[in-house]
Amino acid sequence: MLISKVSDQIKKSKYISRDLSWLRFNYRVLDQARDANKSLFDRLKFMAITSSNLDEFFMIRVGSLYNYLDYGKERLDYSGLRELPFRKKLLDYAHRFVNDQYLTFNNELRPLFHKGGFDILKVSELTEIEQKKADSYFKNTIYPLLTPMVFDNYHGFPLLMNQLLTFGVVTRTTDEGKPQDRVTFVQIPQNLARFYEINRKDRIIFVPIEEIVRWKIKKLFRNVDIVSANLFRITRNGDFTLEESDDLEADFVQEIKSKLKTRKKGRVVRLEIERNPSQFMMKILKERWTIDNANVFTINSLLDLRGLWQIINHRQFRDKGFKQPAPVTPLSLPSDGVDMFEYLKEHDVLLHHPYNSMEPVVNLLERAAEDPSVLGIKQTIYRLADQSRITAALLKAAENGKHVSVLFEVKARFDEERNLREGERLEKAGCFVIYGISKYKTHTKMMMIIRKEGEKVTRYVHIGSGNYNEQTARLYSDISLLTTNEIYAHDVSEFFNVITGHSRPNEYKYLMTSPKAMRAQLMELIRIEARNAKKGLKSGIVVKINSLEDKEIIDELYKASKAGVPIKLIVRGICCLRPGREDLSENITVKSIVGEYLEHSRLYYFHNNGDPKVYSGSADMMVRSFDRRIEALFLITNAELKREAINILYYNLQDNHNSYIMREDGTYIKRRPGANEEVVDIHKLFFNKAYATEDVELFEQLKVNS
């Protein structure tokens, strides 16, 4: 009865729960691991991604929920449920996902390992010679790093690290004729490879490191009876919110560093454990961490599927996964070898990654670092690649005496320490470094190069939706603009003054920014479409984003739908809007695209009665994007580039290979080509520049009819 009541309450809500929507997104990622048309190694890649996604989900989203539960704060989910009923619903759904995840791994992927050229085996399945090698590896490498940590009347409960594989070993001794049980914890160091590798003639054997430790666990407990040894892994709350402070003297960087340390001690929100664990140990763990069965996930297989990356990236299998085509020259560039400083004086360039390389941006920055005519460089940085060429170029520029100012966002989740480290390197080289703005997270992606050219100073601007990360630029779809247009340059200069100084410009001509005005400006653009529809004029909205969660925007879209505006939304992940509901959202459709590349680009199209306004940039339609982040969307004004952006949206709508259609109840169904329908796979299509040969016709087709 209670389950039925909860389900009815969820169905009645005009919004979809953000967290339940996210879990449905991870199901779409899991769908890629189930795709028999992909190679085994690509399927394993997506399986590992589902595991990483779920880790972050528990650390941040479930962690956030526990911030309310643990401190007695009230929370009403978009589904209409209060904290405790929602916790039950969310964790029940998470259990269902984990069950499906491991059914896929055990039943669909594992049987393919042998044919794929490898096996994951236990020690008992090794030959005698292989066992001797494993024994030697344990003695020489593993054993010296293991530290048993006992918990009893004389030893306090140890601090167990987040997401490390841990053995809970129950031992029994006899004291004064009475048996005494104790639990000792043995954590497997994170700097050891997940698998011990053995080469056989025809294949590679991967032995999980925990199986070697389990095999030799008695070496750590001499002359003591081992009752049980159970492998488990905990996930701690990783969600922290910085206190808003008006104390201008506070050392914000030190505040971040101290907050990072709390992740190690955050409350436990999930316990993954192998089957049939010791009930003696489980009682201790549940009481110590204040968890119950809803937080406990029993795993009947390999714990922590992120370890599959060792197999996926193994040199033996590098050529067996997805082969990415070479990037193509951007449509707005005549060739790859053009002098960008000269070309950008007369032309704007739109880049569409990963189909276009990030090299034009990186090369421009590297040239600027060496060019004696360049006076200064300004840049915002959210995430960087390992061995970043961006950082190297900025360091070189500073060494060459140029003014370099960089805003490093030290609240970029899970990249905080890297950004602090890189920022400190730049500071030592003489760069002016700002470590974010304490009240907000700087998520916008901007760069400006100031160059003296004769009597004139030219500002070269780059602004986009993606990070300055050369590695992820090959995997994420993003949009960016390179220009010397004076209006963009003025807006970006003003924006840098806002985030590095104390400036409040009245307005921007081509930029839409948050936290000041973005929500209101987007809502007004939606209202214009609604007014046009009511007047009988042509109208339409097409939006491609990562997430849609802001209630004010959703309500405005509902109003526009009622006014007769056709609205097509392409939302990769979270979508809290409920499409296709009678008398609410009948004119709204939602699709999600999940495939080889992570859809990270944002594009906003408003028909505007035949004079479309098209924006791109860093912001999604989320509360955090509008209220707690520094974001920017830029208007695409160049006619050719606008047509290209519209074409990109058009083909995203046409895609029938990577697409999922969202239904009114919040579930998704796979979009499949009809019997006589041509397959449209945008992750292949955009590598072929021919998709843009009929610009005008496609431009006309995208004008959504009223």
Query: So what's the CATH class of the largest domain?
Result: Alpha Beta
Q: Which class of secondary structure composition applies to the elements?
A: alpha/beta
The biggest beta sheet is recorded as:
10 strands, mixed
Mean pLDDT figure: 90
Total separate domains: 4
What keyword list fits this structure?
alpha/beta, Endonuclease, Chain A, 20 helices, about 20% strand
Notes on the structure:
There is one protein chain. The chain has 706 residues and is an alpha/beta fold. The protein folds into four domains: 1-111, Methane Monooxygenase Hydroxylase, Chain G, domain 1; 119-304, polyphosphate kinase like (2-Layer Sandwich); 340-509, Endonuclease Chain A (Endonuclease, Chain A, 2-Layer Sandwich), CATH 3.30.870; 512-686, Endonuclease, Chain A (2-Layer Sandwich). Helices cover 36% and strands 22% of the residues. Strands 14, 18, 19, 20, 21, 23, 24, 25, 26 and 27 form a ten-stranded mixed sheet that branches. Strands 10, 11, 12, 13, 15, 16, 17 and 22 form an eight-stranded mixed sheet that branches. The longest helix has 31 residues, at 40-70. The protein is globular.
Brief overview:
This protein is α/β, with parallel strands linked by helices and 706 residues long. The protein contains 20 helices and 27 strands. The protein folds into four domains: 111 residues, Polyphosphate kinase N-terminal domain (Methane Monooxygenase Hydroxylase, Chain G, domain 1); 186 residues, polyphosphate kinase like (2-Layer Sandwich); 170 residues, Endonuclease, Chain A (2-Layer Sandwich); 175 residues, Endonuclease, Chain A (2-Layer Sandwich).
